[in-house]
Model the fold of this input.
Amino acid sequence: MRKFWEPFSPVGSLWYTTRLWRWPPPAVGADEGGSDVSRRQLALVVAILLIASTLSAFIAYRVGLRHPTGPAAALAPGSESKAEDCVSFSDAGARVGTAGCVRGRILRVFTSRAGNTFLDFCPDYRRCPFTSVIFAADRGKFGDLNALGGQQVEIRGPLTTYEGRAEIIIHDPQQIRVLP
Done:
């Protein structure tokens, strides 16, 4: 009689003790004498793939260290633009996709309920061609941002597009320079 933990087999326990079965089972109509990939060959292929992917990830990481992107790249020594490289906030859309400098007077500093702070350069932010934001996670790095209201500033960083307008996301206080 078969025990409840033994799977049903027409041959009984002989099915397990002899080499009558293989895993994975051969395809229907397959030749029994055909060559199979051994476990050693499969392990070798898997090891080669793991080594190749690890090596490529390491190389990509090292290349990324040499060519930084994002706010750190915009603030890297020697990459600071001069005052003549800054464009007016109304012309910032032409520089989207590059790290640049935008100049203008901040008319309003607004902090949303979520804690994100927006530096508005136009009376109506919805019709302004440029916006800048400081996310709540970075807000603690800055002092009193309300003091920037009415000030002429230069903002440096990668120019991106948000809702059809040019935008700089400010992560670091060094990205903002108050002009005299």
